[in-house]
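Data deposition worksheet. Section B asks for the primary sequence of the deposited chain exactly as it was used as input, without tags or linkers unless they were present during the calculation. Section C holds the resulting structure in token form. Section D is free text for depositor observations; keep each observation to a single sentence. Incomplete worksheets are returned to the depositor.
Section A, Depositor: J.P.
Section B:
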Amino acid sequence: MSSVEIAKEDPGTEQETIQLDLRQLFRMILSKLWLIVICAVIGAFVSFLFATFLVTPKYQSSVPLYVSNTQAHADTSMDANNQDLITSRSLVETYIVILENVVVENTLSDYMLEHYDPALLAQGF
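Section C:
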């Protein structure tokens, strides 16, 4: 028989021993399995409701940009030098600032709504 003995000693009293049968403990847990499952389902449902209605969704995306200085490469080989990389990085940082501007975002949004079907745009976003 699988059992565990737990010794409990209170000051001023004799030692008390509690014996637990592991099979009996396992059967007790299985007999309350329905309650455990119901609590798990309720907890998942409450979590779903919380995430759906109370948490504001935050979306984030990123894209690597590289701007090539093509005019500098018109007469020379296609090897990029350090100055080209610095120039490209500076241009990308400038483009990011421009794209994050609210006026640019609103203008771009208006342009897209004028030239594209809103249902098609909704599929992409």
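Section D:
The beta strands are 3-8, 16-21.
Residues 33-53 form the longest helix (21 residues).
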